[in-house]
C-alpha cells in the first residue's frame, strides 16, 4: 500500500523492473516444477522466500550472500533476471497478487501439516520481525518499546515472547483493537496514541518528561531498545526521544524521506540506530538457520499463531473493496487483509 500511495522512496527504483505484479507474502501449491528440480513436486504446499539474491540470479555468491546475509546482496539488479529486491518487484517473476508466480528452487519452503494456510501466508512478514529481534535481542530484564500496533509491531511482540526473552514490553498503538491484540499476545503495557500518550509512555518506562523552551516534550530516560514499526515522521521522532541513554532504535517501518526530524537525542544520548530489511540467516538454538525456517519451526511447535491477525479476506476481483478496507482501518478493525485466490467474489470474512 505504501507503493500504491507513492509513500516509498524513489531510491529503491533501481532495484525494480517494470511492469511488475505486486505481492511477496504467499502460501500456495506448486503447479509446475522445473527440469533441474528434484526435491519439490507438483501439488506440494509451500511458502516462498521472495528475496532475489545471488543464487536465484544464477550468480556466484557475493560477500553478503556467502555469510548468510541474502537480504544485503549487492547483486539485486544483476544476473539472469531483471532487477528486483523481491518477487513482487521484478518483471520476470510475477507476484502473489496474481494467481501464479515463479520462484527459484532455493526460495521454496515446504510447509508442514502443523502450519495452516493462514499462518503460512504470514511466515514472510513474521520473518521480518523475527530477523529484527534475533539480530537485535533485548538483554534480560530490558524495557522494550514497540511503536506500532499493525502486523509487524504485533509480530515483534510475538517473536519476543516465542523466543522466551525475559523483558518488559510496552506497545504504543493507535487503535483499541490493536491494543486488544497486543494484550492477547502478552504485552506488559499498552499505551494509546492520544493526547496524553507522551506522559503515559514516560510513566510506564520510568522516564521523566521535560519541557523545552519551544517544541515537543523531551524525555529523560526511556526504553533500552525501541522497535519502530510504522515508518512515519511522528513514529521516528518518538522512537528517538523514548530511547534511554545508550539505547538502541531498530527501524522496521520502511521509513523513507523524512522532514524536520530532530536528531539531537542520537548524539546527546549516544543512541545506536539499526536498520532492518527482510531476513537472512540467524542463530537459533546454537545453529545458523534461515530465518524463514525458524519462523516455520516456531509455528510448527505451537509457539506462534498469527492467524487471528488476518481480519479480512477478499478475492482478487474485489481488490477495490480490499483497498478501501485497508484505508479505513479504524472503522473496519483491520489488522491484516489478504487475497484468497480460491475465494469467490463478495467481500470479507
Automatic annotation (TrEMBL):
Gene3D superfamilies for the chain: Medium-chain alcohol dehydrogenases, catalytic domain (3.90.180.10), NAD(P)-binding Rossmann-like Domain (3.40.50.720)
Oxidoreductase among keywords: yes
Designated name of the protein: Alcohol dehydrogenase
PROSITE patterns given in the database record: ADH_ZINC
Superkingdom of the organism of origin: Bacteria
Organism annotation: Alkalihalophilus marmarensis DSM 21297
Record domain Alcohol dehydrogenase-like C-terminal: where: 152-286
Family that this chain belongs to: Belongs to the zinc-containing alcohol dehydrogenase family.
Required co-factors: Zn(2+)
